[in-house]
Design a protein that fits this description.
Layout (H helix, E strand, L loop, with lengths): L1 H29 L4 H24 L8 H27 L3 H7 L3 H9 L12 H22 L4 E2 L9 H9 L9 H23 L6 H23 L11 H29 L1 H5 L2 H14 L5 E2 H26 L6 E2 L22 E2 L12
Antiparallel strand pairs: 1-2, 3-4
Helix pairs in contact: 1-10, 1-12, 2-3, 2-9, 2-10, 3-8, 3-9, 4-12, 5-6, 5-8, 5-13, 6-13, 9-10
């Protein structure tokens, strides 16, 4: 029972870490830090943090590196770290933490659409679960468009007594925090596309290469080089790379430790145990946490467009997940359920991070019309 709850607890911890990252990163961006420079520092610090763990726990157990695995790692670093984070932080700069977290709930719908060509997902439009997934995807996209194009009137929910004066000063001095701009939501949506691509590639790679610490260290190391090159094309001055500002240093260290090192390790492990859609279903928790913190600390304003759009995205998200759950309840006879990836054999790694994969044999049924993806 405890082992079954571990992936859920781990993903809850990831969302708490992401919530703090969004708040600190928004303050650093409002203080004038370039988002590409922030991502570059994040990857460098994350590599330094996670590499010793990889050496300590997986030096002898890491699977053999093949040419295919190496290219998959390059793609993982490009989509899961570089493109995903660069696009996300640019979107955060031109938006608010609550809006960016709300738009992140597009991830399961985008993952579903992108997984279909790789035969990791099926539509099954003639069955109710398939219809739920399609309808949920449409509702998610509709909610995202509503948030992007419609602001609406202000919803008065009172003023927090915990408001952080430093955050107010940063917001007043910022010239790029326009939450009504279309640019911010657009970049966040594109970051979800990159993130979904990483989920799919990571799922494929986990069939042959299960080493969460080593995978994360290599990904962050490759992404460090990619992000530094991108940042250098945008910022040439030494001052732009300075970390003398306390909020810049805190934001970079925190996002590296909790947003990259810890998050990639935990999500890679959870993907190997439960599949990519399971990881996606925890995103609404981040929205709730950041919405409360944004109102309490950053004095964020809530508008009708953002509230209704967020609600539609969350409703669509759980429609997709409900459909996926119903599909997983009916499995062809003789097959096994150990995660959402069909016939994925997960090797047990170090005792501190890997758990034995449990397999459930499904007895023959009269109408085996479900699919394991």
């Amino acid at each position: 029972m405890g082992a079954d709850m571990l992936p859920g607890l781990a993903m809850t911890l990831v969302q708490l870490g992401y919530a703090g990252m969004n708040i600190f990163s928004k303050l650093a961006l409002d203080a004038g830090m370039n988002p590409f420079v922030m991502v570059a520092y994040r990857q460098i610090f994350a590599t330094v943090i996670i590499a010793p763990f990889a050496m300590c726990f997986e030096r002898k157990t890491m699977p053999r590196m093949t040419k295919t695995i190496f290219w998959q790692l390059i793609l993982c670093s490009l989509f899961g770290a570089t493109l995903n984070q660069c696009l996300y932080f640019v979107g955060l700069k031109y938006s608010t933490p609550t809006i960016t977290c709300a738009l992140n709930n597009l991830l399961p719908a985008i993952t579903f659409l992108m997984a279909i060509p790789f035969k990791m997902e099926t539509i099954g439009i003639k069955r109710l679960p398939g219809q739920a997934k399609v309808l949920g995807t449409v509702v998610c996209v509709g909610g995202a468009m509503l948030m992007s194009f419609y602001k609406g009137s202000l919803i008065n929910i009172g003023k927090s007594t915990l408001h952080w004066r430093y955050a107010e000063q940063m917001a007043d001095s910022s010239s790029g925090g326009d939450s009504s701009s279309f640019l911010g939501p657009l970049f966040v949506a594109l970051s979800c596309v990159a993130w979904a691509a990483w989920f799919i590639i990571q799922t494929k790679m986990n069939k042959q290469f299960v080493a969460p610490y080593s995978t994360t260290a290599i990904m962050c190391g490759m992404a460090s080089v990619q992000c530094v090159l991108i940042a250098l094309t945008q910022e040439h001055s030494v001052e732009a790379w300075s970390l003398t500002s306390r909020i810049r240093l805190i934001a970079c260290l925190y996002s590296a430790a909790f947003g990259s090192a810890l998050a990639f390790v935990v999500m890679s492990w959870c993907i190997s145990k439960r599949g990519p859609l399971y990881v996606s279903m925890f995103n609404p928790l981040l929205l709730v946490i950041v919405a409360v913190l944004g109102w309490a600390i950053l004095d964020e304003k809530l508008y009708v467009g953002s509230a209704v759009g967020s609600a539609l995205i969350v409703i669509g998200l759980y429609a997709v997940l409900w459909g996926k759950g119903k599909e997983m309840e009916v499995v062809p006879a003789g097959k096994t359920i150990d995660n959402e990836v069909d016939n994925a054999d997960i090797e047990a790694g170090d005792g501190d991070i890997e758990l034995p994969a449990k397999k459930l044999m499904v007895p023959p049924t009269k109408q085996p019309n479900g699919n394991v993806n």
